[in-house]
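Need tokens for this chain, all 275 residues.
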Amino acid sequence: MGKLTEQSSKESEERLRELADAIPQIVWIAAPDGGLTYLNVKATEYTGIGIDQLTGWSWDRVIHPDDLPQTIKLWTTTLSDGVPRDIEFRILGLDGIYRWHITRQVPVRGASGAIRSWYGTCTDIEDLKRAAEAIRESDSRIRKLNDFRETIIRTAAEGICVCYEIPEFPFNEFSVWNEQMTELTGYTMEEINRLGWYQSLYPDAEIQQAAQQRMARMRLGEDLRAEEWEICRKDGTRRVVAISTSRLEIEDGKPCVFAAPKNDFPSCSTLAHSP
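Here are the structure tokens for all 275 residues:
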């Protein structure tokens, strides 16, 4: 009976190793003390270390020196408490290049509950690391550009705003409107989005119509260059502004207008975005 059990165990182990050799990632087996007892074909292909070389060998020969202290610390803790952990480190390949891997391990316990061995894998995550870093760098550049844009808008000596067309009243909606725009018109962005640029700043119906027609042409790419328009501020006072515009496209491809109305009075200068 004992021989049959032993034979069955050897056959199971052989099938397991055949399966491990078919897996396109590093597979390893370690003794309870952490010493390696088996590496699959992928491990040999990647590191050049064969099963016959495992006696006295350890991962510190191929782990990047900068990653080694933390790796040893985490692996030692895992061996001590028997709790599996994901451990990331760089492994040296036969081509002389280190690539990031993540190792995961599972303890195999005997009838008494004691750990008999460790089964583990090392998965190459180099490309994932590079992709994540590229995303972080891209996000960082975007944040810096946004900060730069916000600083310009906030600190500009003149009004700055951007608007796009909407089908419902009030037909224009602003997404950018700095404090200088409020000083120029008397309206906040919330107020102008509720009341409307045309309806608030151009009380004369004929001027409203002309402004809307001008906006339609601007959305097709016709820019204004210091074109004079008289606006009515929230307090009822009239002011002549010289408006300059440029057509932009926001993220979803929707056209919008960046406008810069400059106060025509020599004592005050203000920029805005929309006629």
